[in-house]
Task: inverse folding
């Protein structure tokens, strides 16, 4: 029998299976993204004292199976891990659900993802302690995509590389994952999303702040949100189900 492994993990998604089992997708610190089956999860308080539900932060014990994709989850414990308290707040639940879905979309099974696990834990911790707002959402988007190898750039022109901080409006080019200056824009064929200076600056800041400081920072306006949304749609090959609801609960400010 394969050895039992243990790792901190965050539950991304669950579904019931048969009468008493549960199939769980988790983002783990040491084993990447995992799909597992928790036999008797709905009945066993002993092995699953901490319930396996989205947002659960658990020490996961599991065994791999020689054949088949799903691991056997043997136990899940709260251990010393920080719980994420998102209950009773629609904004937190909406943003939290989006954070889980984005983490799932940007990770793959059998690939190292400890950076993504730590980012998600940091973001859900900040969400439980503070306000669900556009700044926290944008900080998470920027940092999670950078972790996945899709860093977006808002301070230097992607063409001439000149620093654009504080200068005239810039243009976000989806296919280049960054901005171009007004001069270079006239020389390239792509269509760009015009970004106000304040939005570009806010995104530069949010991209390097700790999550705990993000919700108190300034968010980019609707122009910045549109740039990020278009970029995400160009990279993620599925429709994120949680976005529509999130957009109805938390909306970026519209700039004149
Ligand atoms: Zn330029």
Result:
């Amino acid at each position: 029998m394969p050895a039992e492994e243990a790792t901190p993990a965050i539950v991304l998604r669950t579904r019931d299976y048969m009468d008493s089992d549960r199939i769980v997708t988790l983002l783990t610190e040491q084993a990447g993204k995992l799909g597992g089956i928790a036999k008797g999860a709905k009945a066993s308080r002993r092995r699953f004292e901490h319930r396996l539900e989205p947002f659960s932060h658990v020490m996961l014990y599991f065994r791999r199976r020689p054949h088949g994709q799903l691991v056997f989850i043997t136990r899940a414990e709260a251990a010393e891990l920080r719980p994420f308290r998102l209950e009773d707040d629609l904004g937190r639940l909406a943003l939290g659900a989006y954070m889980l879905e984005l983490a799932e979309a940007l990770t793959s099974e059998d690939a190292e993802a400890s950076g993504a696990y730590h980012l998600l834990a940091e973001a859900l911790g900040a969400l439980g302690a503070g306000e669900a707002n556009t700044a926290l959402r944008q900080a998470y988007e920027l940092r999670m995509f950078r972790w996945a190898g899709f860093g977006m750039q808002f301070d230097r022109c992607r063409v001439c590389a000149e620093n654009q901080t504080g200068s005239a409006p810039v243009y976000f080019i989806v296919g280049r994952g960054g901005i171009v200056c007004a001069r270079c824009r006239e020389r390239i064929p792509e269509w760009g999303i015009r970004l106000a200076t304040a939005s570009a600056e806010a995104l530069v800041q949010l991209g390097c702040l700790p999550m705990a400081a993000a919700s108190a920072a300034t968010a980019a306006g609707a122009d910045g949100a549109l740039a990020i949304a278009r970029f995400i749609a160009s990279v993620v090959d599925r429709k994120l189900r949680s976005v529509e609801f999130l957009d109805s609960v938390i909306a970026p400010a519209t700039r004149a």
Helices lie at 90-106, 114-129, 134-147, 182-185, 197-206, 211-214, 222-235, 242-249. The chain is about 35% helix and 20% strand.
